[in-house]
Amino acid sequence: MSVGLKKCILFIVFPIPIFVLIETQVNYLFLIQFNFELLKVDRLPNFPEKITIVGAGNVAWHLAHAFHKAKIKIDSIINRDPTKGQELADAVGALYSSDFNFSTNNRQFIILAVSDSSLPEVLNKLQTSNHIVLHTSGSVDIGLFKGKAAHCGALYPFQTLTRKVETDYSRISLFLEASDEETYKAIEYLAINISSNVYRMSSEQRRKLHLAGIISNNFTNHLVTLAYDYLSKNNIDEKYLLPLLEETLNKMKIVGPHVAQTGPAKRNNKEIIDMHLQMLKDDHQLKNLYKEISDSIIAYYSK
Known about the structure:
With 303 residues, this protein is an alpha/beta fold. It has helices at residues 36-39, 58-69, 82-91, 119-125, 181-192, 203-233, 241-255, 257-260, 264-267, 270-279, 284-301, and strands at 5-11, 18-24, 29-34, 50-54, 74-78, 95-97, 108-112, 132-135, 151-158, 173-178, 197-200.
């Protein structure tokens, strides 16, 4: 007897296998497993055969290892510091060079994983021909490539990255932009091979996202650094802060930061705030930060 399909629900959770739950007219449930590897798109026409990464710092280190882990060939690492450059090249099976000449006819990705201030200088050294040139910055417009590269874009990993500190590349959000649709498809193909979180975003929106990342990540990390220093000066082990920080992040994911906020400033408890300010009277930097942030919290929740 033939069985018609009544409902098909697709569950996609990367990078684990994909499951399709199928409900039939006779209420039997079938769970069919697909392998993610089988769903990867075929190589695009005119897709660059090689990748060259310029830089050997935090972002370059992680992108190189992500591509290497995904079995994407890295042709060369270019870096001014031969020690760092050679070390990274050896780790991912690439060549090391300090030469910026890309006159070869073989089309390739050239990923400029360098600081924002170094991008103009590096671009002036490139002979890009028909290559696809990308930067990895959150704050630089792809208009920077005008007159330098016909096919260009951005591949921005929105994550805090530190050289030699391992991370789960499949969970890193990658934000892409390109000079034209064909170039975008090539960048997208490259990106989906290392992450399941790939998004398209303009330079303007990417700058705003980068700013939000600075406030939420870099500023928070600095405050925790100051808290660690304060505990160390008072002979208290910094490890006691870690469960608190972990629970704070967990609550933000569940209810959002607005609801998760607690503390004396949220309650506008001026007696406790004044006591803390008195305790910090000899640490002017931390005292001023405490007061500024407390005032900000009080103002936010009094709206």
